[in-house]
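Complex record, two chains
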Amino acid sequence: MAVTRAGLRALRPRVFLGGGPGWCPRPASSNTSDEFLKEKRAQIMSRGLPKQKPIEGVKQVLVLASGKGGVGKSTTAVNIALALAANDSGVEQRGGRWCGETKSVGLLDADVYGPSIPRMMNLKGNPELTSQNLMRPLKNYGIECMSMGFLVEETAPVVWRGLMVMSAIEKLLRQVEWGQLDYLVIDMPPGTGDVQLSVSQNIPIAGAVIVSTPQDIALLDARKGAEMFRKVHVPVLGLVQNMSVFQCPKCKHETHIFGTDGVRDLAKTLGLDVLGDIPLDVNIRKTCDTGQPIVVSQPQSDMAKAYLQIAMEIIRRLPTPPG
Amino acid sequence: MEETAGEKSNLAGVRHILLVLSGKGGVGKSTISTELALALRHAGKKVGILDVDLCGPSIPRMLKVQDKDVHQCDSGWVPVFVDQDKSISLMSIGFLLEKPDDAVVWRGPKKNALIKQFISDVAWGGLDFLIVDTPPGTSDEHISTVESLRPYQPLGAVLVTTPQAVSVGDVRRELTFCKKTGLRVIGIIENMSGFVCPHCSECTNIFSKGGGEELAKHAGVPFLGCVPLDPQLTQSLEEGRDFIQEFPKSSAFPALANIAQQILDGTSPQSS
């Protein structure tokens, strides 16, 4: 018997909306159509958003943020990056020197409006371009660094609206030849706006560390920072209490200039760990201002050891890196 | 002119508008804005504070009015009065949040819209000074604020810095921002300039010293003064004591009173 056209049509698999070809017809229940609508809506809404894609060669991204300005994010980021490079989770102190496998670490200064990293890492100049038109990060103390500070003059303000900042952040993430990095530390600007959203939407982040001083006002914003990361599904590894106490160099009297233990209390409320406590020390400021971060210039000091300890705590809490 | 008549009425009663800028975060802009407002009030002026820091509104907490609500009236939002004699009024996004912990994770356009509303839709009434506290940086908030305030001819901007090099670098950029936008720089304040140990009176320059003064000299703008780090003030805030009462007793007060006087002197030839 000849196969008619109608017969052929009956044999062809039927394709349903939202799914691939299949033999099973979609049941006309309201639950499935609700779910289907939700999925479709999410698909359409996500069309405008950047796709989250990892940076090639970078194993894990660590973000240092706070919400509040001036709590020491950049200072902590620089010293933590150096500590991560010198440290390994299985390392011990042998004869007063930290020994172990060194890691390759990159440092990205995402503070487009007030880039502090160039000064703190003692780096200046414009980045070179590779043959593939990627920017080569500037390197010092073994850390690959990239910052807006290398792309604009030191006195020139970056007076940009959010949209331009978004595209600048994308370039600083993707158009840089990072190479093979174990960790990329990103120093965030203060606030909970465009930069934070752009970074978390663009790349997968292994963990965020929130830095704060014990002061009430700073904690208010640190809390918002933690809330922001929760909203964008970035795991918060813990809090760092910075500028915790000041010891007078003359009489050794301790003054809690910015309050006492506020960060510890906040951590308890939010169910987070305190990764470490850094006192207010003139040497930390002096060494950063002169571009010789304390972890490299005074590695035996208590401050440097505090940063190294925090780095170890971070490594302990990061998920096992891929590959 | 007709379209702006409604807008003009809300800021028409404000004699002088002052912006507090920095560029660097955490130098004490909000603290200085509040202290300046208190110092001006001490000098008998009626002051309003507009907190344009949408991501980190600190001022309601400092003045212990974070639980107050904002009410509506015919001409817009009524600012919150901080004291009994209604000589300090405050508007901040902190009053509009449901919970104080709510994070404002907004992109530029939304921030710009709210700032425009803050500037045109708040019924300030008659004020001698309106102090506008800004977030760090030179971004959407700053551009929108300066643009929206331009028709009202602000008195100018006061720049706050700490003495250390990284702060001074950012403030240098802010100075360029002011020049580019045609905003007059009233002067630079060097905050957290020196810490005097309460035990032995040894002065330690934790955040260095003199950076702000040098920058002012270098940039050719007036240097308004140094404000020291006062831990007692911070501690009293933490313990919930009244900032308005504690402030005149703190070691920062004389410096702030001096700065307020310089600003008042600067306005006297202009006042009608």
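Note: Chain A touches chain B through 62 residues (CB under 8 Å).
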